[in-house]
């Protein structure tokens, strides 16, 4: 993980000008996307298949992907650093994934009975994450939902703790203080429990206590105030739904110790960091093994696959049927075949060495551009993931993240997009994902677009 910082000027007028000009170019390049959005609005609610696909200035409709590239329906090619919200560590149509999926499709895709591949996948996850027992699911949401259920089932307590600004999917218990506004968050030492979605009963929101990231005194106070009632805490070990916010030294080990002192459990949500921050995810990077870990996104090589791993003590409650971890498609042979290919043929040591070299190249070049143009920004990266933080000081929690002017990220996104690089939408929230199929030339285009963006502002 690396964090580097630099010195802020009022660029408001330049930002507004660039947003207008770059959005105009964006829309001009994509007439067929606009037409498809229009047509879709009659049959797909909001004209998209998931609400976060509704992005400004318009949704981009894709036709296909190959290697490190994706193609929109207007025929534009992009270096894909969106990675399908962080899932495409394999890139697109990776030969190992294609071969594994093709072989399994021809042998049947669903039985709801265990297949041998699942044991190979579980064994490799156990080796990488240092947790002995695993089960599977189909999405990050399902994985974190099982983690929360498990913590409650084991401790027979109802309260859970989550960190302000972390996203753990769209089940009720974690739809709290995901992206609250500055006037909603309340006192930093005891943040408000802000509902993050309509449709979640207050009675459930009340069971999710909120604490700041990197705030051990806050966690201790919360545990003491609710002694004997907290089942556990779920946290992104490296926050990745607020740009990238690394944990401070001792934070995660200190959290684990405090929770255990209070008879509570620690769950890492590695849905985003799993396999992307490194071969053993953030767990390997930070050197702290939680009681429960949740994986999804990248492990499936582009198919829906998720996993929950736990200590023997935790998973005993699943093994003995006390907590029934179920799902028709759990461990589905197609998902298992793709996940096996990811673990044994795609996310290899050699692939991580190549990604590290691209990461270093991108970060060094971005830092040079930031210095040369005197931008008030810095770069944060973790393995295949990285982002520019448009603020001179490092960000240590969600409150710091709230202070970032999102217009910088939007203009940067537009420059990259119009210049043939597809970053994830949603500005400062998201980060890039490099895949095992990206090349030096891809990174050079990425850097060249950043240089043009910086020059346009400064
Ligand atoms: C950290 C984290 N956890 C959980 C989820 C939910 O995953 P899914 O969208 O697969 O349900 C996400 C999705 O972005 C995520 O970023």
General description of the model:
With 458 residues, this protein is of the alpha/beta class. It folds into two domains: 184 residues, Aspartate Aminotransferase, domain 1 (Alpha-Beta Complex); 252 residues, Aspartate Aminotransferase, domain 2 (3-Layer(aba) Sandwich). Helix content is 40%, strand content 14%. The chain has 16 helices and 15 strands. The strands form three sheets. A seven-stranded mixed sheet has the order 5-11-10-9-8-6-7, sandwiched between helices. Strands 1-12-13-15 form a four-stranded antiparallel sheet. Strands 2-3-4-14 form a four-stranded mixed sheet. Helix 1 runs parallel beside helix 15, helix 8 runs parallel beside helix 9 and helix 15 crosses helix 16. It is globular. It starts with a strand and ends with a helix. The mean pLDDT is 96. The site of pyridoxal-5'-phosphate has 14 residues, from helix 6.
Strand elements, count? 15
Assign the CATH superfamily of the largest domain. Type I PLP-dependent aspartate aminotransferase-like (Major domain)
Number of domains: 2
Strand order within the widest beta sheet? 5-11-10-9-8-6-7
Q: Segments where pLDDT lies below 50 for 5+ residues?
A: none
For the sheet with most strands, the description reads: 7 strands, mixed
The average pLDDT score comes to 96
**CATH top level of the largest domain?**
Alpha Beta
Might you state the CATH topology name of the largest domain? Aspartate Aminotransferase, domain 2
For the record, the CATH architecture of the largest domain stands as 3-Layer(aba) Sandwich
Query: Taking Cα atoms only, what radius of gyration do you get, to the nearest Å?
Result: 22 Å
Give the names of the bound compounds.
pyridoxal-5'-phosphate
Secondary structure category: alpha/beta
Report, as a whole number of angstroms, the end-to-end distance. Answer: 29 Å
Q: What share of the residues does DSSP label as strand, in percent?
A: 5-15%
Any idea what the shape is? Answer: globular
Helix content: 40-55%
Number of helices: 16
